[in-house]
Amino acid sequence: MYSVRVEAGFSAAHFLTQFYGKCENLHGHNYRVRAYASGSQLDKAGMVLDFGVLKGCLRRVAEQLDHRCLNDLAELQNSPSAERIARYLFEAMLADTPGLPLTAVEVFETDTSMARYEP
User: By the 8 A CB rule, do 88 and 76 touch?
Assistant: First the structure.
């Protein structure tokens, strides 16, 4: 199995609902996102997927979240945790680029705290 990974980032605000602690208050992050694609076969150029295709898709989707309050998005309004953001990005990437061999998305809120979604 071969895997490739690309990264992008966005800055956004959010607050967690049904959570009691400092993160229930509005605050922001400079999110770092990693997207993974995998496959057992390589194309004629020897690639699972062109990095540019995966990076372009991730950037288009992440750009839609940049400088937003994530709670304003219907899909994330019920507590936009890193886990839910990762799933949202995964599903949005597949909608943006059907047939993408996407296998996982990671969302970093800080350098040391991240969530991963892989169906």
Answer: yes
Report pLDDT digits (tens) over 64-75: 999 999 999 999
CA atoms of 114 and 119, how far apart (whole Å) = 17
**β-strands 2-14, 113-117: how paired?**
unpaired
The token pair at 73 is 């998005």
Q: What separation, in Å, do the N-terminal and C-terminal C-alpha atoms of the chain show?
A: 17
pTM over the 0.90 mark: yes
Give me 119's structure tokens.
């169906």
Domains of the chain with bracketed CATH: 2-117 (3.30.479.10)
pLDDT tens profile 91-118? 999 999 999 999 999 999 999 999 999 9
Compute CA distances 38 → 12, 31, 48, whole Å: 29, 23, 7
What lies within 8 Å, CB to CB, of 59 at 6+ separation is: 8
* pLDDT for position 21: 83
